[in-house]
Design brief:
The protein has 8 helices and 7 strands; from the N terminus they run E-H-E-H-E-H-E-H-E-H-E-H-H-H-E. The chain has about 250 residues and is α/β, with parallel strands linked by helices.
């Protein structure tokens, strides 16, 4: 039930951190994966790692905030393998650290474009073809920031909350065609994206102490959840938000 053998999985932002782990775990499960991020050299370096392991993969550079580049990503995937079975919307940005009262219109537009509108675009580019193939799975990487208020990451959390709303709307719309849509809400994961948080020893220890599992997350912790949601093991799950945070959000 957990096999992804011969399925085509497109993962945005997959040259490092959570996205790379998702691509790796899906390849281990038998998927043919599409590696993508903004930088071509990073894509090629990661592709070489997959090929060295004998895993089927291609690399397509893409800035998800550019609709033409996103369409090219989809078109290149279809030209290579003729279809797409799994889409993971992982690429995101967080250019603002501070109160919402200090956020510029330009910063607001950038984060909403990268984190929300790109998901809307990619879903509409791929889900109709999934439906034609008999079904598929879209996995959106959100954040526990979607569930919590913040005086320094409020805009990022707002964008991630918007993703969960988009997930539910898409799940209702495409469920009759057997296309499922779900969100993963990671807690603090040891990635470059969150380096400033976990490299601060005092902050890291405080987070570990308030987390029931008493540790920070690793990228593979999210990779495994993504494989589950993409597989037949999750065939009756859609429109859901799965929190993978070691228990942080349920702790007192």
């Amino acid at each position: 039930m957990f096999s992804l053998k011969d399925r085509v999985a497109l993962i945005t932002g997959s040259t490092r951190g959570i996205g790379k782990s998702i691509a790796e775990e899906m390849a281990k499960a038998g998927a043919r994966v599409v590696i993508s991020s903004r930088k071509a050299d990073a894509c090629e370096a990661v592709l070489a790692q997959f090929q060295a392991r004998g895993q089927e993969a291609i690399a397509v550079p893409c800035n998800v905030g550019d609709k033409a580049q996103l369409q090219n990503l989809v078109d290149r995937t279809l030209a290579q393998w003729g279809g797409i079975d799994v889409v993971v919307c992982n690429a995101a940005s967080n250019p603002v650290f501070g109160p919402l009262s200090k956020v510029s219109d330009e910063a607001f537009d950038k984060i909403m474009l990268t984190n929300v509108k790109s998901v809307f675009w990619l879903a509409n580019m791929t889900m109709p073809r999934m439906a034609q193939r008999g079904g598929g799975s879209v996995v959106i990487i959100s954040s526990i920031g979607a569930l919590r208020g913040s005086n320094v990451n409020g805009l990022y959390g707002t964008s991630k909350a918007a993703e969960t709303g988009l997930c539910r709307a898409l799940a209702v719309e495409w469920g009759p065609k057997n296309v499922r849509v779900n969100c993963i809400l990671p807690g603090l994961i040891k990635t470059d994206f969150a380096r400033a948080l976990w490299e601060d020893e005092e902050r890291r220890k405080r987070r570990e102490q308030m987390t029931p599992l008493r540790r920070l997350g690793e990228p593979k912790d999210i990779g495994g959840v993504a494989v589950f949601l993409a597989s037949d093991a999750a065939a009756f799950i859609t429109g859901q938000t799965i929190v993978a945070d070691g228990g942080t959000t349920i702790a007192p």
